[in-house]
């Protein structure tokens, strides 16, 4: 098979093609409830996870054959990130989230992304934003 030249999205495309069938995409945006232009947001960048995983395992995913040989293993080891740490968002809210956290949010930003989504939902519903999680609270209490 041909070598993937200069396109870092190809390995992740092979993973997404295989994993997509099991995605639990909801029928409305988590934030605003619209049923149009829906997209699945992974709180963890699949590209960053895949690259770090392949490097740690010393797998060569630079060819189609290389990624096809290991993608099922990657999917099995990243069930939470692929299927549970996700939200269905409309394009408007998905774009807004990436404007705040960047195109490929850092792995350690997952709790902040989740909180951002919950705050946006509360604002849309006219409610008070949810309180900070116990994890964030305990982090700050360690310094007081």
Please give a handful of descriptors for the protein shown.
144 residues, mainly alpha, 7% strand, elongated
Radius of gyration, rounded? 17 Å
Percent of residues in β-strands: 5-15%
What's the domain count?
A: 1
Strand ordering within the main sheet: 1-2
The span between the termini is 58 Å
- The total count of strands amounts to 2
Helix content: 40-55%
Identify the overall geometry: elongated
| Average pLDDT metric | 85
How are the SSEs placed, and which strands pair?
Elements: H1 9-19, E1 38-42, H2 46-57, H3 64-77, H4 79-84, E2 86-90, H5 91-101, H6 110-125, H7 134-141
Antiparallel strand pairs: 1-2
Helix pairs in contact: 1-3
Q: Please, could you describe this protein's structure?
A:
The model is unreliable at 1-8 and 134-144 (pLDDT under 50). This protein is mainly α. It has seven helices and two strands, in the order αβαααβααα. It is elongated and about 50 Å long. It has one domain (9-141). A two-stranded antiparallel ribbon has the order 1-2.
Summarize the structure.
The chain is mostly helical and 144 residues long.
């Amino acid at each position: 098979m041909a070598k993937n030249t200069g396109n870092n999205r190809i390995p992740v495309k092979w993973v997404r093609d295989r994993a997509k069938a099991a995605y639990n995409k909801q029928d409305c945006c988590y934030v605003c409830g619209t049923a149009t232009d829906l997209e699945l947001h992974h709180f963890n960048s699949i590209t960053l996870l895949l690259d770090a995983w392949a490097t740690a395992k010393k797998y060569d995913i630079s060819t189609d054959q290389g990624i096809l040989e290991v993608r099922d293993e990657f999917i099995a080891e990243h069930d939470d990130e692929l299927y549970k740490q996700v939200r269905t968002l409309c394009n408007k809210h998905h774009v807004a989230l990436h404007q705040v956290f960047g195109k490929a949010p850092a792995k350690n930003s997952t709790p902040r992304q989740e909180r951002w989504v919950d705050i946006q939902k509360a604002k849309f519903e006219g409610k008070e934003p949810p309180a900070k999680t116990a994890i964030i609270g305990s982090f700050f209490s360690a310094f007081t």
